[in-house]
Amino acid sequence: MTPFGRLSLNQATVNPLTVAEAVDLCARHEIPAIGLWREPVARAGLAAAAAVVRSAGLRVSSLCRGGFFTHADPAARQAAIAGNKAAIAEAAALGAPVLVLVSGGLVPGSKDIVLARRMIADAIGEIVPVAQAHGVRLGIEALHPVFAADRCVITRLGEALDLAETFPVDAVGVVVDTYHVWWDAALPADIARAGDRIVSYQVCDWTLPLPADTLLGRGHVGDGHIDFPPITAAVTAAGYAGDIEVEIFNQDIWSAPATTTAATIRDRFPQVF
After folding, report:
1. Is the CB of residue 53 less than 8 Å from the CB of residue 94?
2. 3-state secondary structure of 54
3. How far is CA 71 from CA 57, 110, 147, in A?
4. What is the DSSP code (8-state) at residue 210?
5. What is the CATH number of the domain that holds 26?
6. Start-to-end Cα distance in the chain
7. Which of 91, 176, 220, 265 has the fewest CB atoms within 10 Å, counting from its CB?
8. Which ranges constitute the DSSP H helices of 37-73?
């Protein structure tokens, strides 16, 4: 497979587009895979979204997202579990091999990060049998520490891997997202240890200055400070040969013409290697 044969457009990169529009964009720009998000899939209808992807001949590289398990209210926690079980079924219907988990921040009203991490481990344990039954792997994504309070208390790939390794390898793995983990001195060793636990590889760049909403601080490959080839080489050496998703949250990119964004992604993709 050529490098472009591994390219996937994560739908968040072209956030304003519908599923059908994002699929058409991929087809026109010869991007062979797409990472889908649950909300636009729900707006399109699950069966319709699956059909439009199939008719275009694209692969679904992942479904985003599950997780957000850290709730103080027992009813809210059970609703989150039920929502994640539904997300697993949606991933299977779409042909997505991976459901990406953004596990959740601190429990509302609490500063106990150990509690939050324990709740995440317990919740994943509850949904693992459903993942196995559907043939979908759960991808635990470590997020940059700036998001620990509100989005994800799992902040290092090694920590995500420690958690994943408590479950069967066919059910739970880890996501390597360059934006979140590029800074970590332990990254090469953690990637090597991850091996076949790596279920998704996502790329975008770390750009400065950070915006007021740090969630939107991602940039096109080559516009920031991440040295991609060593990370890609480590992921490849660990045995990962799957799709490489370009996932960018950036208001300026969302406001740009989608055709420009897709062309830039293809133009910059060789810099990942």
Report:
1. yes
2. helix
3. 39, 10, 17
4. P
5. 3.20.20.150
6. 14
7. 220
8. 38-44, 46-56
Domain that holds residue 213: 3-272
Task: Give me the number of domains the chain comprises.
Answer: 1
Amino acid at 94: L
Token pair recorded at residue 170: 């066919």
Q: What is the pLDDT of residues 189-248, one digit of tens each?
A: 999 999 999 999 999 999 999 999 999 999 999 999 999 999 999 999 999 999 999 999
The DSSP code for 206 is E
Q: How confident is the model at residue 10 (pLDDT cuts 50, 70, 90)?
A: very high
Give the pLDDT score at 1: 61
Tens digit of each residue's pLDDT (9 = 90 or more) over 132-169: 999 999 999 999 999 999 999 999 999 999 999 999 99
Nearest CA to 59 among 83, 35, 82? 35
- Does the pLDDT value for residue 84 go beyond 70? yes
Residue 43 CB-density burial (10 A; 0-12 exposed, 13-18 middle, 19+ buried): exposed
One-letter amino acid of 233 = A
Q: Alpha-carbon distance 10 to 17, whole Å?
A: 11
Whether 255 has a pLDDT exceeding 90, the answer reads yes
Amino acid 3: pLDDT: 80
Which DSSP letter does residue 107 get? P
Side-chain-side CA neighbours of 45 within 13 Å: the count stands at 4
Helix (H) or strand (E) holding 141: strand 137-141
Nearest Cα to Cα of residue 9 among 19, 255, 226, 91: 19
Instruction: Identify residue 47 by its one-letter amino acid code.
Output: A
- Other beta carbons within 10 Å of 40: 19
Distance between CA atoms of 270 and 273, rounded to whole angstroms?
A: 6
Which of 113, 100, 111 lies closest to 155 in space, CA to CA? Answer: 113
Which residue do the tokens 């729900």 mark?
Answer: 42
